[in-house]
Amino acid sequence: METSQKHYFDDADEALSPETSRPNFVKLAPVFSMTPETSLHPLSDDGHDTLRGLEEWFSEHGGTAVATDYLEALLTGWAPKIPARAWGLDAPKLIAWHSKSEMNEVFLASEARTRLATALGELKITGSISPAGLAEGRKGLNALRPVPQIPRGTRHWPYRDEVPSALADIGNVLDSAPIG
Fold first, then answer.
1. What secondary structure, in 3-state letters, does the chain show?
2. The pLDDT of residue 104 is above 70
3. What is the pTM assigned to this prediction?
4. What is the per-residue pLDDT for 39?
5. Within a 10 A sphere around the Cβ of 46, how many other Cβ atoms?
6. What is the mean pLDDT of residues 152-162?
7. Residue 13 class from Cβ within 10 Å (0-12 exposed, 13-18 middle, 19+ buried)?
8. Given Cys at both, which of 1, 20, 99, 136 links 10, Cβ 3.0 to 4.6 Å?
9. Neighbours of 107 (CB within 10 A)
10. How far is CA 43 from the centre of its chain?
11. What pLDDT, on a 0 to 100 scale, did the predictor assign at position 129?
């Protein structure tokens, strides 16, 4: 439901819907925006929880809400912490880091999806993504791009072969989103 001219929120008892999303989001994210049935969807699982929390954050803080403040508050309580250096690694180093432990991949992927969901949730709620939100979304996207290159022996993810095209779709949304 629309609670102000600026913010669109979903009904907590309903699924993601075009009627409760900013038109910019619906226009830019038609490929994945309303069908969060797989773990590739940026608003499923971690992303759904992030979106619901972000909606609460915007509802509580109104016009002063900042999506990245929500993300920072959310990640403060997470353990284990992903080393800050991991977010800036190039693909070969990120693959090596992922491959050291299945848990590295699990935790980094979860946090990456949360960063993406924050950026896309901001677009869904407000109709634009802040520069800081876009930077966080790109961090998440860049951390997920090497996933298909991780040796299959470390972790078999059933959607691994679909990751490149799904991430390309998400990247296109980030590239096309209004910055605000």
1. CECCCCCECCCCCCCCCHHHCCHHHHHHCCCCCCCCCCCCCCCCCHHHHHHHHHHHHHHHHHHHCCHHHHHHHHHHCCCCCCCHHHHHCCHHHHHHHHHHCHHHHHHHHHHHHHHHHHHHHHHHHHCCECHHHHHHHHHHHHHHCCHHHCCCCCCCCCCHHHHHHHHHHHHHHHHHCCEC
2. yes
3. 0.85
4. 58
5. 19
6. 64
7. exposed
8. 20
9. 17
10. 7
11. 97
Name the residue among 129, 83, 90, 130 with its Cα closest to residue 104. Answer: 83
pLDDT at 40: 61
In residues, how long is the chain?
180
The pair of three-digit structure tokens given for residue 131, joined into one six-digit string: 């520069």
Q: What is the mean pLDDT of the chain?
A: 83
pLDDT tens for 35-87 read 555 556 677 777 788 998 999 999 999 888 999 999 999 999 887 788 888 88
Residue 40, burial from CB neighbour count under 10 angstroms (0-12, 13-18, 19+) = buried
Q: Which amino acid is at 53?
A: G
CA distance 99 to 103: 9
Determine how many CB atoms are found less than 10 A away from the CB of residue 168: 12
Q: Facing residues of 179 across strands? A: 129
Q: How confident is the model at residue 153 (pLDDT cuts 50, 70, 90)?
A: low
